[in-house]
Amino acid sequence: MRSLRNGMLAAGLGAAFVMTSSVCAAPRKAPAAPKVPELAAEDVTVVELKDRMPAHWLVVNDVVFTHLLDGRAYIVDADKGTYLGMVPGGHSHAGVQFSPDGANLLMPGTFFARGSRGERTDVITWFALKDLMPGPEVVIPPKRMQALPLLSSIPLTDDGRFMLIFNFTPEQSMTVVDAQAKKLVGEFETPGCALAHMTGARSFMMQCADGSLQSATLDESGVITLGATTDPLFDRDDPATDKPVRVGNSRWLFITFAGAVTEVDNASGTPVAGARWRLTGPGEQGWRPGGLQPYAFHAPSGLLYVLMHEGGPGTHKHPGTEIWVFDVARQQRIARLPIETPATAIEISKDADPLLYTALFGSGTVVVRKPADASVLRKIEGLGNDISVLQAPPVAAPAAGAAK
Amino acid sequence: MRSLRNGMLAAGLGAAFVMTSSVCAAPRKAPAAPKVPELAAEDVTVVELKDRMPAHWLVVNDVVFTHLLDGRAYIVDADKGTYLGMVPGGHSHAGVQFSPDGANLLMPGTFFARGSRGERTDVITWFALKDLMPGPEVVIPPKRMQALPLLSSIPLTDDGRFMLIFNFTPEQSMTVVDAQAKKLVGEFETPGCALAHMTGARSFMMQCADGSLQSATLDESGVITLGATTDPLFDRDDPATDKPVRVGNSRWLFITFAGAVTEVDNASGTPVAGARWRLTGPGEQGWRPGGLQPYAFHAPSGLLYVLMHEGGPGTHKHPGTEIWVFDVARQQRIARLPIETPATAIEISKDADPLLYTALFGSGTVVVRKPADASVLRKIEGLGNDISVLQAPPVAAPAAGAAK
Amino acid sequence: MRRFDRAAEYLARTAARSTSRRGFIGRLGAFVTATGAATLLPVSRVRAEKAAVPIQVHEEGDPNSCDYWRYCAVDGFLCSCCGGSASSCPPGTEPSPITWLGTCRNPADGRNYVISYNDCCGKAACGRCNCSRDEGATPVYQPSTANDLDWCLGTQVGVAYHCSLSVVTGLAD
Amino acid sequence: MRRFDRAAEYLARTAARSTSRRGFIGRLGAFVTATGAATLLPVSRVRAEKAAVPIQVHEEGDPNSCDYWRYCAVDGFLCSCCGGSASSCPPGTEPSPITWLGTCRNPADGRNYVISYNDCCGKAACGRCNCSRDEGATPVYQPSTANDLDWCLGTQVGVAYHCSLSVVTGLAD
Q1: Euclidean distance between CA atoms D172 and D102, whole angstroms
Q2: How far is C94 from chain B (nearest CA, A)?
Q3: Number of domains in chain C
Q4: D76 and D131 belong to one structural domain
Q5: Are D133 and D73 in the same domain?
Q6: I want to staple B46 with a disulfide (CB 3.0 to 4.6 A). Which of A155, B172, C69, C89 is the partner?
Q7: Is D69 a catalytic residue?
Q8: Span B81-138, pLDDT tens digits
Q9: Percentage of chain C surpassing pLDDT 70?
């Protein structure tokens, strides 16, 4: 301060009111004497990102469990290992959805008029990737499910036309937002069934409390009509998780806590259970999938990456200590890769030359790995408190559609 | 789960919808066989605190710097070392004020309609100590200074009638709230001067940028009139901190970064500088006061406790490694007490048999000490992220008034 | 699509005993009939107490520790560490009227008890004693036994989650 | 009560050069006249750039480290760690038009530079690279040199604080 005060008094500024604009930002001519040129006066700039999200950028969701009001998504460049920016969420932050062109992030948010109390407002906000500024906003019924993050509670139709928001009050319903017109379509009752797993531009499956699946369609105006229902496909003793894996346009793998896999196809509008197999083989009954995001499917290669740990019933949120890799078409495991740090979330980029990502809830660190052997390429640290789910952006040719 | 499902099915409940009310809360009769009686079904209760705040309870303010939206105050019992509850704050949480009877906490809060963006609303909310529920609320101009916490930015008049809120937009002004009628009185310009240091039921002093003090009064309706101003009392080279210490009804100690003390009395309505002395003696020039709350004055004993550290200019937020104790009337140090953990905040209870408290920003821990030697009586841990200031409640006979 | 189970029958009987919550129960009808059930706690009857209610005399263990027997299926901040207890909400919060159930074995008497995991609501997250045990927890589409859900949804004060109780409701068998 | 100083004179000269910000400067009049000053940055002229502007060629050190020379008087999260740089706000934030000044010595050339500590605003706190150095910082009642204040107050996006810049504005002497 001494130097500041003296310097500024010498310059006749007192406590100076200095313009740092381009008006006076031109670099000064260096005085005669010193050998090193004087630093130029700088303009302030604001960073812009890209128009579309590159395949190796990643959205890292932080639910901030100890300060649930301030959930957020971080954007990182996994090739460079750099932090690029942040998109604010809200109370009980679930995640974002990418517009199919990768140019916009749709962010569901829940806010209270007085922080953690007062009138509740739920909104969908569009953030352009380019400037990460809050753009259009659609107010939706303040009923969005508040839970540990599940991306299937906030899906976007494949063409980006509609966003679906699962409500739990505890009545169960689905809010539909027209993402093109940016307005609310309406709220539709879905008694007894939850979440939306997209099986086409205008169709999806829901999971119901008795272990059955419910088919549903959207019409061109976004109105939901419930369709066929299956018999209960899963036991109450070993339910399918609420984190199924999309392996084709209309095909999903439902995987139970114990690792039993059932492929279900909704192409016909009636969910049809197909192949049934298990993640574990003989002598591996002690191993289970676990975590907040235990599965990542890479459509170009048809490979499924699963976080596995040793543990019994009730350990479905335990972090994985190995990544098991499966060829879904052949229903076979092709690799078993121990990892040096346990992980509760796994994701893989959607391009042909992918990066594999893992994160452990509470670590604030994303580990970037080689898919072939899970070896560590780099780590991105300081990513907040409570990483829940990781989200790789879509690539030019939608992976899910291509795989069918 | 296995046991739950089996048990509940056996009891004929399916997935049971069980009342836990008093209707069915009567303890079941123990069956014949087991020796240990069966546990009783329990009612849910909500804890109530006391009508008035005991002298050894403490309000611990957490600004939550990494999640500034979610500031809060914790209430702890320093005798028992227990955590009692939490009062939510808002963005850039400053602290609370106690009603003179200790029955209510007045909490200034700043909120945005969309978490960290959107329309800003500033309010004062009354929380009864007994139930810690948000009670009446007064909306004030959304101009409250957002800064590291300073209790003199949100003072209450000694009789609890008016609350003053210092605004910085960067125009400087003072909002006055009638705490009895629970309504806004108005906003009054205070150009060039900041904060309010109460010097009576209806008078206060402000600190001005040129190092002078500004006297001001409130009339019975809460209207502020600016009064006399002093000459600059402090050098720009060594300014008085914005954390002066009240040592009497109308008397405050202003203490500079380097530890020079000036007592100022505003009893006449014109601030009059009195005794000038220093915290440091010969050979102690390397020591300075520092922290976010470096001073605690105990009115019944007339003793001032100061967090001191070794450091030069620019270290005024550094944590103290010793507590120096001064007899203010005699302007003499009576003790120099090293502490095992550095501290950025110090406070002392206002009763005749006081407890001394220290906390280090970032530690989440309040250390309860014996005032005589600063020895550790107990620690209260897990108090959030960023403890800023500690607040001991008023006792039956207001300490500040009694000391005059 | 008929997903009715014995819970609805039980509900009908139970609801008849509680006049004060009929309106609320009525709203729950579709949910209960369709998906199973959840614990309903009549908030209008919740008592305020001068102190947190401690554990019962025939229990053992530390209710501030995640290892405490009642917490076998909890996921959240323990109200015991937040100014409440296993059955008492901290001051300034409201217990959720509905929630989900777990069954835990009390080591002191060897019996299994049904535990109701009501949330205390309306205040920002407590942040103390985070405990996740998940024994018997199901996916969110089976909400009556799901601990990933914020169960504050039935409260007057809104869904902001503060901490979780673990209340003994009776013997499991 | 006349607290006029040379800053007001300087402001008058400077403002004359900037037509775009006159309305804003007008509003600042009372503040500047009365209390001294703060740095005014015409936000209407802030450029968007495809990348964060790096440090200049004649500088040394790591702008992601609190030890970096420009940070001698900063108090907050370093924008360099938040998707920006020492002079670039992260995407989705707005630089504060006014702020306070410090003077830091550049070890690479031995010169003292005036550094403008503008905040980037409108988004919840970044939370990365917290750095508090405070050299030359004054109490809040001397705001033109106070780093305890949230300087986002002049922005369109509101006072929510995200991170702090450290912009070279010129030689100090």
Answers
A1: 9
A2: 7
A3: 2
A4: yes
A5: yes
A6: C89
A7: no
A8: 999 999 999 999 999 999 999 899 999 999 999 999 999 999 999 999 999 999 999 9
A9: 74
Nearest to B91 among D141, D143, D160 (CB): D160
Domain holding D99, by residue range, is: 69-171
User: Dihedrals φ, ψ of B84, to 5°?
Assistant: -110, -30
- Show contacts of B256-262: CB within 8 Å, 24+ apart: B257/B288, B257/B289, B257/B313, B257/B316, B258/B288, B258/B313, B259/B287, B259/B288, B259/B289, B261/B331, B262/B233, B262/B234
D107 inside domain: yes
In a domain, C53, yes or no: no
Asked if B215 and B228 count as a contact pair (C-beta separation under 8 A), the reply is yes
CB under 8 A, 24+ apart: contacts of B36-39? B36/C58, B36/C108, B36/C109, B37/C58, B37/C109, B38/C109, B38/C111, B38/C171, B39/C56, B39/C58, B39/C59, B39/C106, B39/C109, B39/C111, B39/C113, B39/C168
**One-letter amino acid identity for A183?**
K
Instruction: Using CA coordinates, name the residue in chain A closest to D128.
Output: A382
C36 CA: distance to closest CA in chain B (Å): 6
Contact at CB, D45 and A22, closer than 8 angstroms: yes
- pLDDT at residue A398 above 60? no
More reliable by pLDDT, B76 or A27: B76
Per-residue pLDDT reduced to its tens digit, D141-167: 998 888 899 989 878 788 899 999 999
Closest partner CB to D3 (pick from B68, B150, B192): B192
DSSP A43: -
* B170 at A interface, C-beta within 8 A: no
Confidence band of A400 (pLDDT split at 50, 70, 90): very low
Classify residue C51: in a domain, yes or no: no
C86 and C25 in one domain? no
State whether D39 and D103 are in the same domain: no
Q: Is C62 within 8 Å of C107 (Cβ atoms)?
A: no
Q: Which of residues 106-145 of D touch A (CB under 8 A)?
A: 106, 108-114, 116, 118, 120, 123-124, 126-129, 135-138, 142, 144-145
Please indicate, yes or no, whether residues D165 and D108 belong to a single structural domain of this protein. Answer: yes
- Whether the per-residue pLDDT at B316 is higher than 60: the answer is yes
User: D173 and A43: CB-CB below 8 Å?
Assistant: no
Backbone angle region of D34, left / alpha / beta, with phi > 0 → left and psi within -120 to 50 → alpha: alpha
Please give the ipTM for the structure prediction.
Answer: 0.87
Question: Does residue D166 sit within a domain?
Answer: yes
D151 annotated active-site: no
Q: In chain A, which residues have their Cβ closer than 8 Å to the Cβ of C137?
A: 314, 316
Question: Is the same domain home to C103 and C153?
Answer: yes
Read off the pLDDT of residues B288-314 as tens digits, 9 standing for 90 and up. Answer: 999 999 999 999 999 999 999 999 999
Please give the pLDDT value at position C48: 83
**Together in a domain, C24 and C98:** no
| C27 and C74 part of one domain | no
| Residue D133: CATH number of its domain | 2.60.30.10
D73 in contact with A, Cβ within 8 Å: yes
Q: Which of A67, A127, A256 to mutate to test the interface with B (most CBs of B within 10 A)?
A: A67
Q: Chains touching chain A at 3 or more Cβ pairs under 8 angstroms?
A: B, C, D
